[in-house]
Structure formats: C-alpha cells, structure tokens
Design brief:
This protein is α/β, with parallel strands linked by helices. The chain has 2 domains: 172 residues, FAD/NAD(P)-binding domain (3-Layer(bba) Sandwich), CATH 3.50.50; 142 residues, FAD/NAD(P)-binding domain (3-Layer(bba) Sandwich), CATH 3.50.50. Helices cover 23% and strands 25% of the residues. It has 7 helices and 24 strands. The strands form 8 sheets. The chain has a 5-stranded parallel β-sheet with strand order 5-2-1-9-20, with helices on one face. A 5-stranded parallel β-sheet has the order 11-18-12-13-14. Helix 1 packs parallel to helix 6. It is globular and about 70 Å long. The mean pLDDT is 95.
C-alpha cells in the first residue's frame, strides 16, 4: 500500500487560495496531503478597502497584512513568481528555477489590471489627472488628488468587463457625491459614470434601482461607451466610434485579465488568461486534476469576494471527493452578494445567482438585512465584513446559517409587468 502523501499546489495566496488552503489543512493531515501555495509577493490586500482609501475612510496600513501570516501551520508558502505550468507533466516552474510537482493543482490567481491595453491610459496624465483606485498606488495617489479637487468634471469609466467587484465603480461615484457634498463643493463638480453596459448594472432589477439612485444624486450616466483611447492632451475619453467624453479628473477601471503566465501555459487558460471551469463543480475543463477558484475561473458570475467564499465551500468538498476517487457531487449555483455603498452612511445589498437576478426582500431570511434598499444597517454590515474577512473567511470558518447556495426565504418574487 502506498502511504506517500499526495501533493496539492495552489497558485495564488489571495482570498481564494488562502481560504482553500486553510480549509483543506483542517480536513487532511500532512501525512495524507501536502499543501504548497505560491505567490510572487507577501502582501495581502483587503481589496474592498481600496474603495475607501481615496476618500480618507481607510488608511493603506489598515487593509494590508502579510500573506504568510494568514496561513495555518502545515502549509508550505513559497514567495516566488510562477514562470509557467506544464499541465502534461503536472509541474509548476518557479522563478528561481525550482519546480513543484503536483497531484492536484488549484488555480486561484485572481485577475490582473491591464492598463497598458488601453491606448493613452498610461500617458502623461497618468497619476496626474487620470487615476485608478483598483490598486494601492492608485488609491493612495487619488486620495491626495481628491483633497484639492474643488470644481470640474469627474468621470469614472469602466473600460470593459469582466472586472473585479463590478459594483465598486458605482460605489465610487456614490461616495464621491457624499464626499464633495461634505466638503461643500458638490454643486461645482459634475460626476459622470461611463460604462460599456447598456445600464448601470447587468441585472435588470438592480440596474433600475441603481439607475434611480444615480438620477437622485444628479450623477450623469453614459452607457454603451467602449473606451478606445485616453486623449491626454485634450483630457477626453475617446470611444471606438469616435465619441468623446471630456474630463478634468478621470478615474479609470482598466481592462482585467488572468495572471500572465496562465495564457503562456499551453491550454491552461483562454485568450483572456482565465481558466475554463465547470460552472457547478469548480473543476477545470482542461484537466480533471486541476481546479479553479475565484476570479481566475471563467464562470459567468461576478468576480467578487462573496463568490470566492461560496465557490470555496463547494470546491473543498469536491476536491475531497476527487482525492477519494469519488464523483463530484457538490454544486455551486452562482451565488453572489454585494454590499453597495451609496454614501451618507448607507448601503444597498444585492443577492443573486446564475438563474435569479437580485430581488427585494431580506437576506438571508425574512428577518435579515434589507435587499435592494438603502439602509444604515447594510452600511454597518459592509464595515463589519473587514473584521470577518481576516478572522473568519480567510481562516476557513463557516458562517452559521449561511451556506454557498442562494437562499430564497425572505425574498419577494419578481412580479411581471
């Protein structure tokens, strides 16, 4: 009988990789499963906190911790860039020339910003009148810029989908409305939200609710705008059709793609660098011994922390079955939920899955938080989530009463017109 432990290699020590490693370490002793996790740095950023940095509502050091400190004992952590994955020989080549062989591979590499893919985005105006809040450098620089911005056109632009946390750009314009109102300069500032979508959001019910909020807050929206270029000299976004949107200050959410080495590792990734994945089991469509979690997967739902959390519970159960030679029976239904900051200490909450769009009511039951409705309790819920993230989600703890499947209790069914 072969008593040699099998080896799981996890690519990415972000939200997905960390929670999966910790959950699996609790399930398997090291004598049964060796767990190696690889990332090219030891900086774990609580990404929802980046939204608050530009407005002085969070400081950078409050949302950053070492990756290694979030991992349980018995997990081997490698701070090393990945060069490529050989899915035929089951090997991962690292930057220092070493190789990790694996029995099972978990790809949790997230998504990466690709500002270089948009002409002019990294031009002379970059970090001067053009910024992003999707990384720490941009969020910190934008905080300094906003402090002195008292008049003009603030344009927030999503270049294309998919992006991490699709509601974050909307949250930014809502918080900007609050921020400039508090400073007494809101009347001197035009806020414009520019999106490639045909509405404020992808789901009709949520799009209507969010669109109404934009109107109530006097925030302009430009839909179906496909950004082709940032004109640095004339301070304008230029669409592929020649349409222009002028700005004094532009906040851009750049194109996203998978980790660069994914696209360079044979058939592992698609043309965007994301891994083809079974929507229900989180097993890759590339090889049966490769699983995917979080933003790296090409599943048709939001690239958001809640998705990674719910996927993670399903993935761990299925990976356990795979190692035991059993069928993969756990299924992920596309469940996602998001707190949406709307300013003035209020927030919306939306909850949906592959088949069901966001509906009004309450979550997770009829006695829970209000859905599709601004409230202070939702705002407090968003603030409290940061503590749960570090002390509950990443360590792999379960939340009593909340599982991966989207709950239906407490929701009002959509009424046809």
């Amino acid at each position: 009988m072969n008593n040699t432990p099998r080896r799981l290699v996890i690519l990415g020590a972000g939200t997905g990789g960390t929670l999966a490693a910790n959950r699996l370490r609790k399930k398997f002793p090291t004598s049964e499963l060796m767990i190696d996790i690889v990332d090219d740095n030891d900086v774990h950023v609580y990404q929802p906190g980046l939204l608050f940095v530009p407005f002085g509502l969070a400081k950078p050091d409050e949302i950053v911790r070492p990756r290694g400190e979030q991992l349980h004992d018995g997990i081997s952590y490698h701070v090393n860039p990945v060069i490529k994955v050989d899915i035929d020989t089951n090997e991962v080549e690292l930057g220092d020339g070493s190789v990790l062989d694996y029995d099972v591979l978990l790809v949790a590499t997230g998504s990466a910003l690709q500002p270089e893919e948009t002409e002019g985005l990294l031009g002379d105006a970059w970090m001067n009148s053009v910024f992003t809040f999707y990384d720490m450098e941009g969020a910190t620089a934008l905080h300094e810029k906003l402090e002195g911005f008292t008049e003009g056109r603030l344009v927030v632009n999503v270049v294309d989908m998919p992006i991490k946390c699709p509601v974050a750009p909307l949250e930014f314009v809502f918080l900007a409305d609050w921020y400039f109102t508090e400073k007494g300069v809101r009347d001197a500032i035009t806020i414009v939200y520019v999106t490639p979508l045909d509405a404020a959001f992808t789901k009709p019910t949520a799009a209507n609710a969010l669109g109404s909020l934009l109107e109530d807050k006097n925030i302009e929206i430009v839909t179906e705008f496909n950004t082709g270029e940032v004109d640095n000299e004339n301070k304008a976004l230029v669409g592929y059709d020649g349409t222009e949107v002028p700005f004094d200050l532009a906040v851009i959410v750049p194109l996203h793609g998978g980790a660069p080495y994914i696209a360079e590792s044979g058939d592992l990734g698609d043309e965007l660098g994301f891994v083809p994945t079974d929507n229900a089991t989180m097993q890759s469509l590339v090889r049966p011994n490769i699983f995917v979690l979080g933003d790296a997967a090409d599943v048709p739902t939001s690239k958001a922390g809640s998705v990674t959390h719910f996927e993670g519970e399903v993935l761990v159960e299925n990976l356990e079955s795979f190692l035991a030679g059993k069928p993969l029976e756990a299924t992920y239904d596309g469940h996602a939920n998001c707190f949406i900051e709307t300013g003035f200490s209020k927030a919306l909450l939306i909850d949906f899955n592959y088949e069901t769009e966001p509906l009004p009511g309450h979550y997770p039951s009829r006695f829970g938080l209000p859905l599709l409705k601004e409230s202070r309790i939702n705002h407090l819920g968003k603030l409290m989530f940061q503590s749960f993230y570090w002390h509950g989600l990443l360590p792999g703890r379960d939340i009593p009463g909340i599982g991966p499947d989207m709950p239906t209790a407490g929701k009002k069914k959509k009424v046809s017109a």
